[in-house]
Amino acid sequence: MIEIKTLFFIIVNRGKANAVLRKAQECGATGGTIFFGEGTIQSKLLEKIGLTEIHKEILMISASEELCEKLHNTLSEAFMFSKRNNGIAFSIPFERWQLQASGQEERNTSKKIDASHFCIMTIVDKGRSKDCIKSARAAGAKGGTLLHGRGAGIPTDFYFPLVIEPQKDIVMIITTKDKVIPIRERIFSDLELGKAGNGIIFTLPVSRASGLFENRSEESKGVTS
User: Fold this and answer.
1) How far is CA 206 from CA 4, 139, 149, 175, in A?
2) Is 177 part of any domain?
3) Is the pLDDT of residue 21 over 70?
4) H helices within 103-221, ranges in order?
5) How far apart are CA 73 and CA 88, in angstroms?
6) Terminus of the chain with fewer CB atoms < 10 Å: N or C?
7) Could you tell me the CATH number of the domain that includes residue 162?
8) Domain range for 141
């Protein structure tokens, strides 16, 4: 059984994930999973000509805490995440737990996570991701990354056990701790996620983030990749 302590995510422009994975393997990573997605950009000029999304690849790697730190340092330097639009990396820690014979969970709470950033995940029906991003930006988010997926279920009022697979949009937003609640509540309210079937939203702590533009106060505002 593989023990996962941290999930390490890298979001880069389409076509770069394989190069990032090879570099990660040089650092000790045993492998990774690549997802296709879209990144949202905020530009009045591009909105006028209909270009508001750019193709992205999301690389996910399971790692120890030590490997995670090495990946942050090595990949950020090798792929220049300090420059705008070159990519971002973030890691999500996992709390260790095991199920006892009695059915009770035994958790290891020896290490407290003091996260400065969080990952907000919203899952909605296909086509509602733009509304989600719009609400998030109104509450202070810089943007997000969109992934496509499928849901599965059986209608409770249907006679035959027919499995349905409606297409879903998964919106991933990385933001600072002070903006998490306003963004989450705005999305929840605007998209009416309190109603059954409208979607779900949850947050995960980020133990470290690299490449977020809001963290680069020393970078000139006019610098782009």
Assistant:
1) 15, 20, 23, 9
2) yes
3) yes
4) 129-138, 177-190
5) 12
6) N
7) 3.30.70.120
8) 6-95+113-215
